[in-house]
Amino acid sequence: MSGPNQTAIDQSFCQRFRVCLTGGNGSAPVVWISDQTDISILSYLSAVRGVRQLPTRISDEELEQKIADGFGSQGGAVTRLQSDAKNGSLNDEAKVDSIIVKEINGIILDCIRKGASDIHFEPGERELLCRARLDGMLVEHKHLPREQVAETLSRIKIMSGLDIAEKRRPQDGRIRFPVDDRTVDIRVSIIPTDFGEKAVLRLLDKQSLRLNLRELGFSPSQFQLFVERIALPYGIILVTGPTGSGKTTTLYAVLQHLKSPAVNISTVEDPIEYNLEGISQTQVKPDINLTFAAMLRAILRQDPNIIMIGEIRDRETLDIAIQASLTGHLVLSTVHTNSAVATVTRLLDMGAEPYLLASSLKLIVAQRLVRKLCQQCASNRLDDLYHTAARKLVTTLTDGARSSTGCSACSSTGYRGRTAIYELLPIDEEISVAINAGASEQEILSLARRGGFQTMAETASTLVNSGVTCPIEVLRELGS
b or e along 34-59 (b: 16 or more beta carbons within 10 Å of the residue's beta carbon)? Predict the structure, then answer.
């Protein structure tokens, strides 16, 4: 018996994962499973080996006989295997598999429930280190024996439909992981390293996604300005910041806010982080020339009202976005810059015509994510380090300022959860004229100041004095 393609599915494979394929040679194979089957193997068979038939469930004894018949095993061996299974005396390899399955499932479940955004499985010379990213910071979660590296990575590959035989090249896959009464999407990236393959799992839990604009962290004045600008029928609204600063969440919240039966919303993303009901989402595929620019041209023929572009990366995408905004579409997108004012310079450096940019830009939002103080262990005891950080942040502390020492509720970190800090630069007529005239960043900033513009550091000072976060955390994000 052989697999549909690639390397053969041998007897060891079938016994290990409790699955059997019969048929083939021009006809669709029949997939046999039992109650002992690791169901995630079906994703592997579908994604890697092209087997998409619905499985047929039989007893484990019948499955063992199917495997034996397919590979011509001796009946005595089959009887012995069946007897061992009934007595709970499985071979060592099966025991290891069972332990690994429970181990990985337990790690993923625990990290999801703790609100982690990523899980790292990092092989080293002496151990397999598992770390979780909680509130933006990597923390050690578990230490696994060095001997479990191969089995752990094989299990993750099977869960995400990847090729377990390929160990030399990077691979990307996805897992749909059931948790309580919901399913969490997990994006998997695997790369080879000196001590084995490293896997990073991005946990995309819709339950942790805040899509209510009021929950994002805007101040009252910022919120009013933001809602006014996203209600415009056309123009470009940009969200800027480094990777991991929450830009996608902000844009998704805008789409959720603007969504209605009377509005056609389309997105072009790389990758699609979350599926939003009622919105047409497309993922770019550069290998078939399905780029941001190519998809934008196609979407413009789909009668859209609102277009969300995952990121403006090049001149071509920027030009199409500007033209779309000038022809009656609201365009939402992201760029990578350090501040709202610097975004104007970045777009001009990419080749945007100043007069077109001045006409199309409506709002630029710069943001960062800062950790919130754990309220269980927060106090008004502020040490010298706290005061030094406040001076660097140019913040005058009030009685509302707090620090935290760490407790069991926050895993001794002193922080629980994150919030965003923003700076909003509305492009009014005065700033539009300045952009068209080639004004410098400092000149644009001066004009914005006259209109009440606040930097992220100034916004953060309000959060510090209300006890939401501390100046040390703000400086860590904004730089000292």
Answer: bebbbebbbbbbebbbebeeebeebe
Contact (Cβ atoms closer than 8 angstroms) between residue 325 and residue 235: yes
Mean pLDDT score across all residues of the chain: 88
> What token pair was written down for 272?
């699609």
User: 86: burial class by Cβ within 10 Å (0-12, 13-18, 19+)?
Assistant: exposed
The residue among 244, 258, 177 whose CA lies nearest residue 211 is 258
**Preceding peptide of 271 cis, ω within 30°:** yes
Identify whether the C-beta of residue 386 lies closer than 8 Å to the C-beta of residue 471.
Answer: yes
- Residue 61 near residue 82, CB atoms below 8 Å: yes
Nearest to 418 by CA among 210, 204, 223: 210
Task: Tell me the per-residue pLDDT of 142-181, one tens digit each, with 9 for 90 and over.
Answer: 999 999 898 899 999 988 888 888 899 999 999 988 888 7
Q: In one letter, which amino acid is 357?
A: L
Structure tokens at 276: 């939003």
Q: How far apart are CA 134 and CA 210, in angstroms?
A: 16
CB 192 within 8 A of CB 169: yes
| Residue 345 amino acid letter | T
> Which helix (H) or strand (E) segment is 397 a member of?
none
8 Å CB contact between 322 and 316 = no
> Cα(77)–Cα(367) distance, rounded to whole angstroms?
64
Distance CA 90, CA 399 (A): 65
Rounded distance between C-alpha atoms, residue 272 and residue 9, angstroms: 33
Residue 480's pLDDT band (boundaries 50, 70, 90)?
A: low
Phi, psi angle pair for 124, to nearest 5°: -125, -175
The DSSP annotation for 166-181 comes to --SS-EEEEEEEEETT
The DSSP 8-state label assigned to residue 53 in this structure reads P
User: Are residues 9 and 2 in contact, defined by beta-carbon separation less than 8 angstroms?
Assistant: yes
Nearest to 229 by CA among 245, 210, 212, 213: 213
Most confident of 8-22, 252-266, 267-281: 252-266
Rounded distance, CA 443 to CA 22, Å?
73
| φ/ψ of residue 125, rounded to 5 | -70, -30
DSSP 290: B
Strand ranges for 224-329 from DSSP E = 235-240, 265-269, 280-283, 306-309
pLDDT tens by residue, 179-213: 887 889 999 999 999 999 999 999 999 888 878 99
As a whole-number percent, the residues of the chain with pLDDT over 90 amount to 66
Q: Strand pairing partners for 283? A: 269
CB 58 within 8 A of CB 34: yes
Angle between helices 75-86 and 60-71 (to 10 degrees): 150
Task: Determine how β-strand 30-33 pairs with β-strand 56-57.
Answer: parallel
**Residue 201 region by backbone torsions, left for phi larger than 0, else alpha for psi between -120 and 50, else beta:** beta
Residue 352 CA to its chain's centroid (Å): 30
